[in-house]
Amino acid sequence: MKKALITGVLGQDGAYLSKLLLDKGYEVWGAFRRSSSLNDWRLRRLGIESRIKLIPFELLEFSNIVRVIDQVKPDEVYNLAAQSFVGVSFEQPIFTGDVDGMGVARLLEAIRLVKPEARFYQASTSEMFGKIQQPVQSETTPFYPRSPYGVAKLYAHWITVNYRESFGLHTTSGILFNHESPLRGIEFVTRKITSTFARMRRGEAERLELGNLDAKRDWGFAGDYVDGMWRMLQQDRASDYVLATGRTETVRDFVRLAGAACGYDLAFEGQGVDEIGIDRASGKTLVRVNPAFFRPAEVDLLVGDPSKAKAELDWSAQTSLEDLAEMMVKADLDALDRGEVLS
Ligand code: NDP
Ligand code: GDR
Question: Which of 149, 163, 225, 241 is catalytic?
Answer without folding.
Answer: 149
